[in-house]
Amino acid sequence: MEILSNLGDGFAVALTWQNILLALLGCFLGTIMGALPGLGPSNGVAILIPLAFTMGLGATPSLILLTSVYYGAMYGGRISSILLNIPGDEPAMMTCLDGHPMALKGQAGEALSLSGVASFVGAFLATWGLILLAPQLVKIALLFGPAEYFALFALAFMTLGGVSSTNQAKSAFAAALGLGLAMIGVDTQTGVPRFTFGEVHLYDGLDFLVAIVGLFALSEVFIFLEERHGEATAESRQLKIGRLTPPLSMLKACTPTMLRTSLLGFLAGVLPGAGASLGSFISYSMEKRLVDKDGTFGTGDPRGVAAPEAGNNAAAGGALVPMLALGVPGSGTTAVLLAVLLSLNITPGPLLFTQNPDVVWGLIAALFIANFMLLAMNIPMVGLFTRLLLVPPRILMPIVAMVSFVGIYGISGSSFDLLVMIGFGIMGWILRKLDVPLVPIILGTLLGNAMENNLRRAITIDNGNWWTLIDSPLSIILWLIAIVGFILPLVIGGKVKAQMHERRDEEGAISD
Amino acid sequence: MSDRIFGVFGILLAIGFAFSALAIEESFLSDAVGPKAFPIIIAAVLSLSSLAILLRPDPEPHWPAFGRLAEVLAAIVVLIIYAEALPEVGFVIATAFAATYLSWRLGSPALGAMLIGVGTSLGIYVIFHLVLGLSLARGPLGF
């Protein structure tokens, strides 16, 4: 009952004209960003963060805007998967397998609307999962001391590479690089400057928003320039959309699939290091094994469209659970959302639920509202979004670059930050070429200082005894999970990775 | 080969990082751990992972031909000039030029690129400055 009254308060926060308009805007922009190959949820949110700040939005409205973009992008990715056989973002890659064959059979409209419904079911159930699971996780997290938090951060880094990265050494490198970047600036506990090399601009540390926008948005522009891929992919192929409602029999046949994969996707999202891409992947593989008796998967089976879509949207909701309850994001886009919270001076984690209940429950209520908006937007208006796919990158990419500059300049008003951003853009481009994941870098710059502070606090409390880090059963369990999470992908990861990356979008989409 | 170079670079980075960590001046009021320990741990992780990359490299990534590489470098130079010129000439003019350049290099015909550049610049100015009230760089002409 407490949950329902909290949720009621949340709706009171979320149901103002400003917030509803922001949710609507976020859903619309998010769907576009998801649909356009080359812009995914993480770079979409990254570009918009600085703008949300410079517009002077408060904590709840900014979060509502950006999580609507996040949910919207998860919906939008399927559009180009189905129509063009190119995933709009990485989580949507599994939707190509059956979505595009359906479109070739003249059922594009049905595939789009069915996947819209599946997205809705996945996201809706996951939001309920968030409501039920997050407070339980908070109860556990309240038992955490500094040593346990240090172990938890280590766990997040060690599992983040997980199955979605191609090389564990490279994700460890990325995490260490991010942590190292976080060390730049004046040490908060003793006040001595570190790694500043006498540059006054660096005393405050690097602004992680600058790093995020550079790594995610600007590197994308460089990739497009390198490939000189300026024409829209949609132009050559025109598909008939057909009727925009799925027949009831098709919905009925897909209902068990949607329910099962929502649960599975949600669990995949909650696990650290998995994220939406893995959610859609395991949903599809499980359904294929479970119901594909006639071998119709891969040839335009509606269940093969519903499964990954419900799975990836449920995983998107699930990934919010550890981010809100523990302050440790489980995926790329939630890492970017964590940056939003930190810049708003809100520390996510167990205290968030007691100190800022209006933010948490307002956000959850907004997720419900956004979900209904997205369902309404994505079925009748899907024609509009398909037309937007015709915008070629030679128009889109300059806009992305310029909006990134506007956002960063708006925060600081200094050319120095713009140069740092360009530097991060170059770094992001090279690292992406070398297949080094970018998300651990972001997570490192975000969590580096908190991780160090917890380490130092734990050891100081115990008079300089380093063994205090593995002194409690809770921290031992966390360390064990971390070690297993790091080693397991080395053993079994290869196969899963190879299958997942078979259909990867070549030039777009940072792993989520 | 790329990964081997990358690994060597990573190890050098880790050594540099460790040296500048050791050079941090400790304050006389320090906690039990001090400001050096965590950076040194990071340097250790950085060097170990670089070593692993060096010893077990991935297949060679697809590097662009020299022409495309020059393309990216030119774009970087243009963006640096843009960042420096922004406070001098104002948002609208600088952005129009930068967006025109990017659009042209992505394959728009010259005239089309100019229209896209000017359109992008004015569009951002109207939406973000006039409607949303964001402060953009102001040049000598006031915009």
UniProtKB/TrEMBL annotation, chain A:
Keywords in alphabetical order: Membrane, Transmembrane, Transmembrane helix
Entry-linked Pfam families: TctA
Record domain DUF112: where: 20-443
The keyword Transmembrane belongs to this UniProt entry's keyword annotation: yes
InterPro entries, per database record: DUF112_TM
Domain of life: Bacteria
Transmembrane regions listed in the UniProt entry: 20-39, 45-71, 111-134, 140-160, 172-188, 208-225, 263-284, 323-347, 359-379, 399-422, 476-494
Residues annotated as signal peptide: none
Name of the featured protein: Putative tricarboxylic transport membrane protein
From TrEMBL, chain B:
Chain ranges passing through the membrane: 33-54, 114-137
Segments forming domain DUF1468: 6-136
Origin: domain of life: Bacteria
Sorted UniProt keywords: Membrane, Transmembrane, Transmembrane helix
UniProt protein name: Putative tricarboxylic transport membrane protein
Organism name: Tropicimonas isoalkanivorans
Phylogenetic classification of the source organism: Bacteria, Pseudomonadati, Pseudomonadota, Alphaproteobacteria, Rhodobacterales
